[in-house]
Specification:
Pfam families: Aldedh. Belongs to the aldehyde dehydrogenase family. This protein has a seven-stranded mixed β-sheet, sandwiched between helices. A six-stranded mixed β-sheet has the order 8-7-6-9-10-20, sandwiched between helices. By secondary structure, it is α/β, with parallel strands linked by helices. The protein has two domains: 256 residues, Aldehyde Dehydrogenase, Chain A, domain 1 (3-Layer(aba) Sandwich), CATH 3.40.605; 188 residues, Aldehyde Dehydrogenase, Chain A, domain 2 (3-Layer(aba) Sandwich). Helix content is 42%, strand content 20%.
Length: 513
């Protein structure tokens, strides 16, 4: 809901969000902002609810999540229309990113939970295997705080919440002040699915609400947002010695090799830069193309960019939506203007569509871009394609890695092994070969960034288990004791003989080697 103003309600000291639709700037509603006291109360409620929720079997919790999936499917139109109202994104983007993906995530994680969260017996190596056995129990952390962003307001709230709940935690989430209902509807859906009270709470709030949540009595924080705020979140968590996961955005690079399929690569470039109006943490923001195919590639991208249908008047055929937030529009305009001042050329687009009531910036293909410009150095988060010519792949890799960000990247070539080799050299959390950056949508893969793009993972085995404390329990196989007092010369010599037999004697090496 791109246009947001905040004021104090009459007769009250509580702040209120006044929200407007970015597609036409029409008024939507006002919502009161949760206070620090509200946060404290919600966390206390979650703490109490966790006692029973955490005591449920994994199968019981799976049943709740599968009911939630059913409710989401039944409520798909409500979710989509709520998201569109607050963001102005195209119908298909809202459906795929916010509904289909969440149903996919629930299906995958509920299947994995039974395997990943059950008590596991681990092999005891070395000499201790004759006298010890060990099991690992995956215990919930307790109460998890989730702070989600405005670009994927439902999915980026639901994804960590689903994993946290399956692991036996309860959750207090805070959606963005730009899209509060798109996040808050998750609590409504959980209630419709019969979840116990206090298990999943989503607060309406602003930055102060988020700060209160990170300082509250929670056991983990999952944060998606800016680098600056992410560092503050990390500082709070370190102060309390609790774990945290940060997803802080990126400046993803695309490398197009001379042997790439140009039609596929151009489509990948335009879609990867413009999907979700470019408000996508894994969106393509820098494109490095070998000189031999540069002109042809640019021409194809320009033609595709010009062909996109933008605005809700196109209905089901809308390709590109509104800019979600007026402040983001300011950033996009600033980055494009800075690049043009430094000599860049906008081959199509280049300025906001001033003939519309809403916030619209067209797909913009930029060439001759100065690499010191904000368009290359900072996260733009808009439908902009800066295409840069490189002499060879070595130059492309060097330029792609020359960034403080490291979330994702993509490589385009007909030689798969070549693509794999280039991907391995990219300093990013993940890479795609001959595909756009959709790794977040693959729940079996760990998703996370390096450098200033974040810390920790969501998704995959790593993500689900990050919501647990892995507690090993050691058992003695037999009565009595195999080590301990009294110490004497005889026991010391015996230990030396054991060591020699284990790692020098052929028989010992066969069993322990």
């Amino acid at each position: 809901m791109a246009i947001v103003t905040q004021h104090t309600a009459e007769g009250s000291t509580q702040s209120v969000l006044r929200l407007h639709n970015p597609a036409d700037q029409s008024f939507l509603y006002e919502l009161p902002v949760a206070t620090p006291a509200d946060v404290e109360q919600a966390v206390a409620k979650a703490r109490e609810a966790q006692k029973n929720w955490g005591a449920l079997t994994v199968d019981n919790r799976v049943s709740y999540l599968l009911r939630l999936r059913d409710v989401i499917m039944e409520s798909r139109d409500e979710i989509v229309q709520t998201v569109i109202g607050e963001t102005g994104k195209p119908l298909q983007d809202a459906f795929v990113f916010e509904v289909l993906a969440v149903c996919d995530f629930i299906t995958f994680y509920t299947k994995q939970a039974r395997k990943l969260l059950k008590t596991k017996r681990r092999k005891v190596p070395g000499l201790l295997k004759f006298t010890k056995k060990v099991e690992v129990v995956y215990k919930p952390l307790g109460v998890v705080g989730v702070i989600s962003p405005w670009n994927g307001p439902f999915v980026l709230t639901a994804n960590p919440v689903i994993q946290a709940l399956l692991a036996g935690n309860t959750v207090v989430a805070k959606g963005s002040e730009i899209t509060p209902r798109s996040a808050g509807i998750l609590q409504d859906l959980c209630e419709r699915a019969g979840f116990p009270e206090g298990v999943c709470q989503v607060l309406v709030g602003d930055g102060m609400t988020g700060a209160a949540l990170t300082s509250a009595d929670v056991d983990k924080i999952c944060f998606t947002g800016s680098v600056a705020t992410g560092k503050k979140v990390a500082t709070n968590c370190i102060e309390k010695l609790i774990p945290y996961t940060l997803e802080l955005g990126g400046k993803d690079a695309m490398i197009v090799c001379a042997d790439a399929d140009l039609d596929d690569a151009a489509h990948g470039a335009v879609w990867g830069s413009c999907v979700n109006t470019g408000h996508y943490c894994c969106g393509t923001e820098r494109i490095y193309v070998e000189a031999a195919i540069y002109d042809a590639f640019v021409s194809k991208c320009v033609a595709l960019a010009k062909s996109l249908n933008q605005g809700q008047k196109h209905g089901f055929k809308e390709d590109l939506g509104a800019v979600f937030w007026d402040r983001q529009m300011t950033i996009i305009e600033s980055h494009v203007a800075d690049a043009i001042e430094r000599g860049a050329v906008a081959n199509t687009g280049g300025q906001r569509l001033s003939d519309r009531d809403g916030l619209y910036f067209p797909a913009t293909v930029m060439t001759n871009v100065d690499e010191s410009s904000d368009l290359i150095q900072k996260e733009t988060f808009g439908p902009i394609l800066p295409i840069i010519k490189v002499a060879n792949i070595e130059e492309a890799i060097a330029k792609a890695n020359d960034s403080c960000y490291g979330l994702h990247g993509n490589v385009w070539t007909k030689d798969i092994q070549k693509g794999r080799n280039i991907a391995a050299r990219m300093e990013t959390g993940s890479v795609s070969v001959n595909d756009i950056s959709m790794i977040f949508g693959v729940p079996s893969a760990p998703f996370g960034g390096v450098k200033e793009s974040g810390f920790g993972h969501s998704g995959g085995d790593e993500g689900l288990r990050s919501f647990c404390h892995a507690q090993p329990i050691l058992f003695g196989r037999y009565g009595g004791h195999d080590v301990g007092y009294p110490y004497d010369e005889k026991s010391y010599k015996r230990l030396n003989k054991v060591l020699d037999f284990t790692y020098k004697n052929p028989v010992g090496k066969f069993f322990f080697g």
